Amino acid sequence: MMMDTAPTIMNPSLAHPPPVASTPVQDAVKACQFGDEDALQELLEPATGRALVDVNDRDAEDVPLLHWAAINDRRGVVKYLLKRGADTCAIGGVLKESALMWAARQGYMTIIVDLLQAGADCLQRNTYGQTALHLAAQRGHVNTVLVVLAAGTPVSSKDSKGFTPLMYATKLRISNVDLIRVLLNYGPSPGVEEKDLEEGNTPLHWAIVGGVQSPYALSPILKAGASLDAANKAGFTPEELALSLGNQGLGGYLKTCRNIPIRARDVPLKRGLFLPLIQLLWCFGFVNTFGCWGCLGGAAGIGATSSLTYKIVQFDANWVPLGVALWSLVLIVASEAAFLWEEQAALRSMATLLPALVTLCFLYKSMATKPGYLAMDPSAREMAINRLAEEGRLNSETLCTTCIVEKTPRSKHCDTCGRCILRFDHHCPFVANCVGQNNHRFFVGFLFFAVVGISSFLWNLYSYGQAECGEWAMWRCVFGHSKFLGCTAILAAYHDVWIGLLLLTHLRMVLINMTTYESIKGRRWVDNTTHGKPFYVRYPTNCFRFFFRPGRESGRMAGAYGRVPTQDLDMMGKKDEDALDSMEGGASRDGGMNANESRVV
Ligand SMILES: [Zn+2]
Ligand SMILES: [Zn+2]
Asked: What pLDDT does residue 290 have?
């Protein structure tokens, strides 16, 4: 059968195209280039007489037939040749390359999978000592890089010039973020400190030589631990190299990088946790001294301390919102205990203090519980990559290039945590953690008891003001009695409103089995039958699973896509499955059907 796409009729490394001739081998080469299986079969297995061509015959340029089929993405011909016993390790062309290398240079993923399954050696090297991985990295073929890595090529293998695939990638393809991430994250040692033999450049040097413009493009390699002090053979550090090449902006950026703690290297600085306490007390003190106008001074103080302290006392800003939540709670409890506690009405105060204690417990649980990370052991990862490649679905939608794991329908990568989170809801700065499959219920508990406790505090305050001064003068009375108490009241009212609204949206999402992320990105789930609720089963089932079987649904959903992460299955025992099935009756089957109909696009 003739293919209508124009074939690649020469290896880029060849100086001349094959001479036009009508020898049987030349006809076979042409059949391979054009994907003409019938013509090829006629030459290799004629109906009558002896075969005119052998499957391992070569053309005048010493290139085997398999190479021509591979470089032209003729999958049918490749499969036919492999079935006929073509040598997968044969080398050909000026650069003495294998068919796998020719396909890798072009990025033909399915051909590469076929060749590897037929026994092609991914460790073979050409005359420059380059493997298929080097060639794919040079051309920026992320999928091919993944497949040859999964086949066992070491990620930091060097060619005869001492270049690793990462050096080629940073030099030629620095803007290809997925490629850089895969090379940095696939193995335990990505080789960011390696130097080539000629110039002694590290991958960071090569990125600068390659003309990187955006400092953002360098952040993955800097986070992976690239040294800012490594000098090349000419004695230049990356910063000096950027300046010598006239890239002042990049040089300046690399200079400031020395002062920024890189999270991969440094322990997060939790001093940020205490900044809100200082700020709140500062603000309260101002109001206490200067009355209502003190609010302005307090607000200015918060702004100034936020920027100043960050520069003077370095800390991880991720801990600041958690500090706000924690210290607000402490101030409310302190106000309740100091001003509103009465012997006769101790029960009323307990209605604030007990929920505050429970809130604190749930805050801790939300913070300390791992949200559920998507993880794969190396062998499962290799199988997943091969399967996705074979199905032609290997891309950044199905595989996380940072974690190198196959995504599940409800997982999402969190840049702050640097991990893929199961049933991702959102990254919550107030608990300094991702809210996902395993801690979402604790987060909802935190919101619920916070609203109960704060509302009770405000009610006690209202009663207190009413008793002291009568209804109309209440707020003036509270401020008159203690400005500190007045400040806490404003803080509490503010928290009550936004936490209350957040609680309502989360309760609604628990009922319909959605996450915040899915609500925002609702259009990703094409869904004609479930009215925008692709994971809905039944209200009681949704709630039961949310609070008592958080791992279960993720596994079922993953199953609906034919992808079951081992971790999910481990988390739900067989017994739980049976118990739930008997409890839910037909509802879960409906849920399964609905799940099948929705697709991530
Ligand atoms: Zn990830
Ligand atoms: Zn996160």
From this structure: 64
pLDDT band, residue 515 (cuts 50/70/90): confident
Cβ–Cβ < 8 Å for 517, 409: no
Q: How far is the CA of 433 from the centre of ligand 2 (A)?
A: 5
Tell me the per-residue pLDDT of 5-26, one tens digit each, with 9 for 90 and over. Answer: 556 555 554 445 555 557 888 8
Q: What is the pLDDT of residues 440-475, one digit of tens each?
A: 999 999 999 999 999 999 888 888 777 777 655 566
Q: Report how far ligand 1's centroid is from the alpha carbon of 160 (Å).
A: 34
The pocket of ion ligand 1, defined by CB under 5 A, consists of: 400, 402-403, 413, 420
Q: Which residues are the active-site residues?
A: 428
Asked if 350 and 397 count as a contact pair (C-beta separation under 8 A), the reply is no
Question: Which one of the ligands is nearest to 373 CA?
Answer: 1
- Nearest ligand, CA 412: 1
Residues of the chain with CATH 1.25.40.20: 1-140, 154-266
Class of domain 154-266: mainly alpha
Q: Ligand 1 centre and the CA of 228: distance in Å?
A: 26
* Amino acid, res. 94: V
Give the residue-averaged pLDDT of 318-343: 80
* Distance separating alpha carbons of residues 6 and 183, to the nearest angstrom: 33
Report the separation in Å between the CA atom of 338 and the middle of ligand 1, taken as the mean of its atom positions. Answer: 47
> What are the helix (H) ranges across 258-345?
275-290, 294-312, 320-335
The complex scores an ipTM of 0.98
Looking at the structure, give the CATH architecture of the domain made up of residues 1-140: Alpha Horseshoe (1.25)
- E strands, 60-174, in order: 91-92, 97-98
State in Å: Cα 598 to ligand 2 middle: 26
First to last CA, the chain: 33
Ligand nearest to the CA of 367: 2
Q: Indicate which ligand has the atom closest to the C-alpha of 435.
A: 2
C-alpha 515 to ligand 2 mean position (Å): 14
For 91, phi then psi, to 5°, come to -110, 155
Cβ–Cβ under 8 Å, residues 363 and 325:
yes
